[in-house]
Amino acid sequence: MSNISGIIKSIQDIMRKDVGVDGDAQRISQLVWLFFLKIFDDREAELELLEDDYQSPLPENLRWCNWAADPEGITGDELSDFVNLQLFPVLKEQLSTHDPRAQVVHHVFEDAYNYMKSGTLLRQVINKICEINFNNTADKHTFGSIYEQLLKDLQSAGNAGEFYTPRAVTRFIVNRVDPKLQESVLDPACGTGGFLSCTIEHKREHYVSSPEDEANLQASMNGVEKKALPHMLCVTNMILHGIDTPTNIRHDNTLSRPYKDYSNKDRVDVIITNPPFGGMEEDGIENNFPANLRTRETADLFMALIIKLLKDKGRAAVVLPDGFLFGEGMKIRLKETLLEQCNLHTLVRLPNGVFNPYTGIKTNLLFFTKGTPTEHIWYYEHPYPEGVKNYNKTKPMRFEEFQIEMDWWGNEADGFASRKQNEQAWRVSIDEIKQRNYNLDIKNPHIGEQISHDPQELLQQYAQQQQKISDIRKQIKNVLQQALA
Given this model, what pLDDT does residue 128 score? Predict the structure, then answer.
């Protein structure tokens, strides 16, 4: 681990000396396309051994092994000119449109840039990357951890509404939804591929036992990501996870296609996602949706689309903020649609800090199955483990913490008959939800009134109190004016 960590650190130190690379986002973007080509090349070397007639989608002179692998190879201006005038123009514009592998490379490079100005420093970076062998299981496994570190760096450089789901949460969701071998799986806002890579591991562990099974697995994975850098990371992640031609990972905005244009053939068996929340979509995107579901709030538009894209009896798990639960206006109509068309059987309320340090927003995991209306919702309030008061960078949430939910979970086939109410779990009927005007923000009835010390909650309470005081002042003023009139 320390060896590869050290390599990444020295690469970043070299890049800091280059005047062309400005800030974390560009440094990570530069790193990712270089890593992509090295990972692609290592995989090609493996395929040449496995397949007698393997043909690379890249021209020979542009394969990493022929221009980058020799530590004494081209450097300085010659290397810069080669990358800028030969490598990038071909990978962006001139690869075969018929070869799926060529398409993958083209999509990765269409928004990639070579930010490094110094060919000498670029050669130093390339030589460092060549120290990692992605066909060596230990290196590949270790790179998985480094990869997560790159994602964290990307988060620090990212925008509001962009944060990646902790691995403990993705594993728990995939474990509970349990996508079967043949089931099509979609993440419509797949980011860097956390849910998809977790699903690949899950299917391989439980369902893959032959080359045919592996082919079915690879064909079943689908993702869409609108931002170039996370998309590039996602494709790299898929290749690292043995998906050689991840052509089903599209660089696109799921929401930009009109809602009515999605038809039966677009429907899938399983959707697992953490849609961006807190963000606003660009002007006009909401017009792709029916009038009763129009909003600029990204997570709500995704939620409307997820309900539509599930097949009958299809299953979904979605990470959503508290604002979705208590929101009014269009959110009420959306929740009504969800509860009429799907069985929202479980709502896991996560504690503060799961997404620290990127956001303090409280989040929830919604598990639902399409085709039958909701009769009641089981809530489960996830407790902090003993001795933990909050999560942070050094002490994140762990998958093992979810064992309590998994022991309690039961079986959907019998309507979760084995579930019992306890200090963490309670059940709410659809009648009560309707009486509450679809406000799903229901506190744990087993815990007495708690005093919150959360600054966000306290500020919200203060604002509400100020509003009440202002309303009372207006009423008094009106009464006095009428009395004096």
Answer: 92
